[in-house]
Amino acid sequence: MPPFNVNTHRIDPYKNFKFRVLWDNLPVAGLSKMSAVKRTTEVIEWREAGGPSIIRKLPGRTKFEPITLESGLTHDRQFMDWADLVNNPQGDAAMSLLNYRKEVVVEVLNLQGGPAMAFKLRRAWVSEFQAVPEMDANANAVAIQTLKLEFEGFEIDEAVTEPTES
Predict the structure, then answer these.
(1) Closest-CA residue to 147 (of 104, 98, 95, 89)
(2) Which of 74, 88, 125, 127 is the least buried, fewest Cβ under 10 Å from its Cβ?
(3) Parallel, antiparallel, or unpaired for β 31-34 and 115-130?
(4) Exposed, middle or buried, 86 (CB in 10 Å: 0-12/13-18/19+)?
(5) Domains of the chain, with CATH numbers?
(6) If DSSP codes are grouped into helix, strand and coil, which group holds residue 96?
(7) In angstroms, rounded to a whole number, what is the distance separating the alpha carbons of residues 121 and 101?
(8) Tens digits of residue pLDDT in 55-110
């Protein structure tokens, strides 16, 4: 099977620096880095008493590793607003049980900036928010805020198909 169905001439995979993350159908502003979308299935080792001296391996529980998003510090409040839905500084009564989970979409873009693939992360919520990074007057760097998201599964968005490249 060719690696690309539409652009059969293409052999190079997509680059990791062209991507977009969306929630509430809006792209995340100033996003510069995202950790990997990953699932891991635990291994259950089992041996039958009196059987051959081998250990059998069975699949166990599957977990989805959290992702971390990094964004340059600006006046955009997307990270803080979502983090406040999970743990509101005004108290438990201000927490939004209805809205604290979101569907997150990760789009892989081609070099022309169009979506080539998309992954939907189900039931995501904020487990960690860093509003301000460590500051250093001697550094020459961008101030980065981070958001750590937990989620309960992912799937390929079949509505996003391989674009025809010119």
Answers:
(1) 104
(2) 74
(3) unpaired
(4) middle
(5) 19-156 (2.30.110.20)
(6) coil
(7) 11
(8) 999 999 999 999 999 999 999 999 999 999 988 777 666 677 778 999 999 999 99
Distance CA 56, CA 43 (A): 10
Query: What predicted TM-score, i.e. pTM, was given to this entire model?
Result: 0.85
Identify which of 68, 77, 71 has the alpha carbon closest to the alpha carbon of residue 144.
71
Question: Chain centroid to CA 84: how far?
Answer: 19
d(CA 44, CA 64): 18
Q: Are 65 and 153 in contact (CB under 8 A)?
A: no
Sort 130 into a burial class: Cβ within 10 Å, 0-12 / 13-18 / 19+. Answer: middle
